[in-house]
């Protein structure tokens, strides 16, 4: 937690030491980590600020019950799996989680596309940003993928890696120095008025860190994770999603298990793909052409089924 | 609570007696009434099932703070008032409340129009509804308003009132009896298979009670109250909104105060109305024609200003 | 169209005969049926009132293009399929459709649960409803399913069918007569003031018809269809969804084709189901127990794969 | 239109020259400018790509009508004003507009906070951005406001202005050059693989231009304008909102007029402010203390009423 000021650490510790009594449902797993920053990337973090409900809340809402709504654990697990499998979304909207996240601006720009969430972002119109920017670790400094227009290829090495890292660091450093100069915040240079904060910020690059409070219900939290913890998501947002999957597990262990089974580890088969699978089970040997799928779809189906793309069986 | 079975009462008491320790923020006012049904109309109720956050949550999110975010109470109050006055909605999205509501279907049909909320309704496809329907109390049995196409006029009296009450009661009673007959649930009549629940329910009238779990954030909770606690709202939904305003006060007393000041008791003046007010303050005597407002707008402005509609000063 | 007054028919014909010139994209398929009511159930209908965009709009938005955005038809088809397969939802939000729908209230109550749409409903606070209620055709008068708590079983027959139909018809008829009596709209009975419309409506049962304007974007239109044209949806709402799938085909033929392939005819396999399929393709014979799936999941998988539930191969 | 390639201009002209026949409602005002870029800031623009409905659509939906729904123009105007005044939002959701916008990233970050809209943004993961960045015109290069933490003060002049403009230009230029170098797109330098696009983009600063397709309904379009055309909005987003208000006028002239009257030029008075106004109309002379308002609220009320802040009358 070296990135935090001692004042911030004290504030966090104060929050963690203030216990109250409640008759609301509690998630023991989340209480353990509440308020504590979990590091992500080089300067980022995720902190759980608050939550409402747990696995019981899903069950209770689905049953519109007067009491806790839970029956035996096995029945609750069965119900949660059934709801998720059959796309019953509203019971999962009945639990909420609120995070404090520090993240690079280019990650924030992807994240904000999830509209069914509430956000309060630190305002650079109002306040001055810190001198913190993201520089990829060497193992994440990747070349453009040759096959996938929006993906990464091999890791850059040697001189090229060094040159790129140097350039990113230099440019961000200069951008910040000039930002601070234009602001003239302390009024060090009495001959200058200082540029308005809302204008000066435009000089910062997209790897600078911002932070926000972000709140979503359990349904939308899982929608976020399904897309952003996916291997096709950009590594930098995936790093956040991975931490959030751990939080999901702490918060609602039964729902987490169902999520891994019916969302994260699941696959959708198109009408034509279903026919192909039926024929393969019946013993037929298929290839892309005979499957009736496009090349890309065939490749995706083979990946799901763990088959080589050339031919089956 | 005579409308509850002893089993339901036991479930509610069990929930209320189960205390946990939490390091989350707590709303003492809501803890006091958590899970307890507050009666509305003749068979309805509102129960708080869960909540997240309190006045501090609004302040903390607005400041994107590391700690509690609150400063002195006067500063927090000032900030909350400022946010509400200037339509900053996101900090108020950071607190949530979840209710269990029992309400007549025609009220549910108005309520559901508020889309920014989560709902799980008791399913009459899946279960059998109870024999409970709404009959207005005599003082709420009103005639059609002559002046307002969607409003109520005087209270019905004497024979007409008696006839109407009798008719409502008879028709609902028969609708339920026939619903139960068609269902043939217990299989009493072995010669009949029993109509599917999803079909039989169509015989019930709109005054039958349904129930749901309903969850909204503080911003949308207040939007609901602004419209539904308004004197122009139908009395039956207003009865629910009135109870919910009391809950707002228990939950977030500072926000409640700001809500009464800047939403509920506030008025919007159009560009032309502002000009009219300026002229009146400057000492001019206006009437509808000279104000430049339409008859209806003039009437609304006079109501806001506590003036007779004929002429000012 | 016997259910329409000659005045309504004239209005519709007037709309259809008024041609304008536009430089916007046009869907020829929808222009052909614009404004014309398509009958559903015994008194309902769906009418397309307006639309924005066509298949090109999806492609153009996905490419953020300066012009039409389309390339060769085969490339456009490939892109639309890719977008739908990989859950890219925003390009499908770029086209809109607006319907005028007449539907029983119990269907309206299911329909309104789709929150990402705009609705203006005919107000029974403001106006008097017509004497129109839904009575199932004999072939849709089904018994409660024994196996599925929210499904239908066999069709009712003989005396039971006759009794049920009679009861539904009688109760709805009486409900309406009493509604009209309580309203005393024309003031026929001078001794009565007439009950307020907003109260009298509560006497009507859930099979009475209401109507609304409903607007959704193409993405949410398809979400609606995926759930409501599904065999598990209640027949009465499915009747509307079936008509709307035809409209989808007229409007955006390429997207319709992709929808049938990647949504409507598709199936989701859980992580465990994928393993089971892999083993079956490898030649293994599985049953429910060895599959690792629950009984219900195993049944669902067998249905997708066209296999008997007992054992495979 | 010097910022467009001749290919883009040809595409736009092709779209404008393709006329179709439609029986949908048409907005003549918007047809005139459809597809044509309207310049904003130094490199940005707004182009209308498509629309659905016009003033009639609002009226028609509010009346749930079979035909056009319009009566006399004066009645339609009265209805639209009534709906807007009384916060009836759904009829305004029945018309849609779709724009193609080119805008600096820091403006895009404010814009995207309006969640009730659909967006497809040009992807810098997938494609390479152009060398275009925003540099404020000298008259918009403002100092930080001394009184308002999130506002602008006087315009910078002389050496300071020159230094700031130079710095912004230099830093953005270098950021782009280094972005291009790291990408090594053409493969000019054979010894380098080229950094992945999704990483290289992080070197660009927030004044670089991005572009997107953006679609909103008329209700949310007006909500955007109310906040972003407000004098307290940052100048750069206001420049876009001003152009969009002109488009509103072309599209739905009656709604535009009502918007200026009941939203843009309107003011909200708090409960206490209403009391203060009542007393002033009754002839009382008030100051901040006797008004019961805070200093800030009193200042805001005086601004609305066109009064000096010291004392009234």
From TrEMBL, chains A, B, C, D:
InterPro entries registered for this protein in UniProt: Thymidylate_synthase_ThyX, Thymidylate_synthase_ThyX_sf
Name of the protein: Flavin-dependent thymidylate synthase
Gene Ontology molecular function terms on file: flavin adenine dinucleotide binding; NADPH binding; thymidylate synthase (FAD) activity; thymidylate synthase activity
HAMAP family (UniProt xref): ThyX
NCBIfam families: thyX
Domain of life: Bacteria
Keyword Transcription regulation attributed: no
Organism: Aureimonas ureilytica
Active site per database record: 228
UniProt entry keywords in alphabetical sequence: FAD, Flavoprotein, Methyltransferase, NADP, Nucleotide biosynthesis, Transferase
The protein's role, per its UniProt record: Catalyzes the reductive methylation of 2'-deoxyuridine-5'-monophosphate (dUMP) to 2'-deoxythymidine-5'-monophosphate (dTMP) while utilizing 5,10-methylenetetrahydrofolate (mTHF) as the methyl donor, and NADPH and FADH(2) as the reductant.
Annotated positions binding dUMP: 110-113, 121-125, 201, 228
Residues bound to FAD: 90, 113-115, 121, 217-219
Manner of cofactor binding, per the entry note: Binds 4 FAD per tetramer. Each FAD binding site is formed by three monomers.
Pathway: Pyrimidine metabolism; dTTP biosynthesis
Gene3D superfamilies: 3.30.1360.170
Cofactor(s) demanded: FAD
Keyword Metal-binding annotated: no
Quaternary structure note: Homotetramer.
Catalysed reaction, written as an equation: dUMP + (6R)-5,10-methylene-5,6,7,8-tetrahydrofolate + NADPH + H(+) = dTMP + (6S)-5,6,7,8-tetrahydrofolate + NADP(+)
């Amino acid at each position: 937690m070296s990135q935090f000021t001692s004042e911030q650490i004290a504030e966090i510790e104060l929050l963690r030491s203030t216990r109250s009594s409640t008759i609301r449902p509690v998630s023991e797993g989340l209480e353990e980590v509440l308020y504590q920053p979990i590091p992500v990337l080089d300067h980022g973090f995720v902190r759980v600020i608050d939550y409402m409900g747990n696995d019981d809340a899903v069950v209770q809402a689905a049953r519109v019950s007067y009491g806790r709504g839970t029956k035996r654990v096995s029945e609750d697990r069965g119900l949660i799996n059934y709801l998720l499998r059959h796309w019953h979304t509203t019971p999962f909207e009945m639990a909420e989680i609120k995070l404090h996240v520090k993240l690079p601006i280019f990650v924030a720009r992807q994240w904000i596309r999830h509209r069914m969430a509430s956000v309060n972002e630190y305002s650079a119109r109002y306040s001055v940003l810190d001198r913190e920017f993201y520089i990829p670790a060497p193992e994440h400094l990747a070349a453009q993928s040759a096959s996938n227009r929006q993906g990464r290829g091999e890791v850059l090495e040697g001189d090229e890696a060094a040159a790129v890292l140097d350039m990113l660091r230099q440019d961000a450093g200069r951008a910040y120095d000039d930002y601070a100069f234009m602001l003239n915040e302390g009024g060090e240079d009495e001959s200058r008025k200082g540029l308005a904060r809302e204008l000066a910020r435009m000089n910062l690059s997209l790897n600078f860190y911002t932070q926000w409070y972000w709140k979503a219900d359990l349904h939308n939290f899982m929608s976020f994770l399904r897309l952003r913890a996916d291997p096709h998501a950009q590594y930098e947002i995936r790093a956040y999603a991975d931490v959030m999957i751990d939080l999901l597990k702490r918060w609602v262990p039964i729902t987490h298990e169902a999520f891994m089974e019916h969302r994260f580890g699941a696959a959708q088969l198109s009408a034509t793909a279903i026919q192909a699978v039926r024929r393969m089970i019946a013993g037929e040997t298929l290839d892309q052409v005979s499957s009736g799928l496009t090349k890309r779809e065939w490749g995706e189906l083979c990946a799901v089924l763990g088959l080589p793309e050339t031919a089956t069986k």
